[in-house]
Amino acid sequence: MRVTARALQGFGAALLSPALLAMIHTCFAEGPERNRALAVWGACGSGGLAAGALLGGLLTQAWGWEWVLFVLVPLALFAAAVAPAVLPADRRTARDRRGGFDVPGALLATAGSSLVVLGLVSGPEAGWGSVRGAGAMAVGAVLLAVFAVVEHRTTSPLVPLRLLRNRSLVTAILIILVFQSALGGSYYIFTTYLQGALSYDALEAGLAFVPLTLISMAASLRLAGLLLATWGPRATLFTGMLANGSGMVLLSVSMSTDATFLNLVPGLVVWGVGGGITFPAMFASAATGVAPQEAGAASALATTSQQIGGAAGLALLVAVATAGLPDSGPAPAAAAVADGMSTAMWVGGAASVLGGLLAFTLRKPSTAPPMETAGNTPAPSAPRDERSVPDAR
Known about the structure:
Transmembrane segments: 67-87, 99-121, 133-150, 170-190, 202-223, 235-256, 268-287, 308-325, 345-362
Region (Disordered): 365-393
Domain Major facilitator superfamily (MFS) profile: 1-367
CATH topology of the largest domain: Growth Hormone, Chain: A
Strand content: under 5%
Helix content: over 70%
Radius of gyration: 22 Å
Oligomer: single chain
Keywords: Antibiotic resistance, Cell membrane, Membrane, Transmembrane, Transmembrane helix, Transport
Subcellular location: Cell membrane
Shape: globular
């Protein structure tokens, strides 16, 4: 039952994330305007993480972990009720209505990516050469290859393959994959360290994340847009990934059984700044040069890489953290837990720094302004309805 409920929750999130991104991309013009919108979106995510960590600790300590899930139900119902009144309406064209929905592509993409994630998650426990490990990943890869063939032949593809010729989008997808692999696993690693090595309770562990997320919010709102406008996406993404990884490495050095929270603060600060810069910058790069009618597909590719990266990173970093721990017997000593978590955090940080090098494959932004003369002054654009955006499929 829990697995089914979790699958339904994931299905809803899979619909929501790319739709939100596509809405941002179509409502805000490419450049500073969209960068500011993505910075606010990223800051809201960081704020939600801080609130969720704190509220989750309070609810778990007071009434149990079940309430962490239950409290989301009225919030989700309220958001669904007010969404039609506050969100811009979709604008579907006659071509969109004729095209239909690519059911075979959707099934192949879902099954293929799910099996790849299953193999990555199951590999450390079942063995990388097992059916659940390499077997699942191999079948998933075959299904994704078939998906590419189907998308090439269908008249209404779920993901137009021409999007993969967009260097900014492909590079952003790879950076998102690496960033989320480091970030998704490291949150779990840090929480386990706080509770397993420092004996924090659920509330204390939640409070420990508040400085990290507040700093990330500030960096997203105040630094990301400024750096994108000043340096462009290449230098901004590299700087963000470098700071993100450096903060994780600095934190790993401080992770011991006798560490105080103050010992951890420098790493948390650098980590938060890096994440706050990187998050909006990589999604801004993913939307660069994408036509409005394909914003939904591009956003889906970006968020899919985010989810796959998070699942893969969690599995791999947990495997690193537990490599030196006994499979059975008494609970491992706190020092062994701390050492394993520190090593995993270091690996995640190093991966983030190396992933930042991918930013240099982006095209350099053009610095020359367009020339305007009396004969080629662009005509003013027609007014548009701000509450109407293209369909974000």
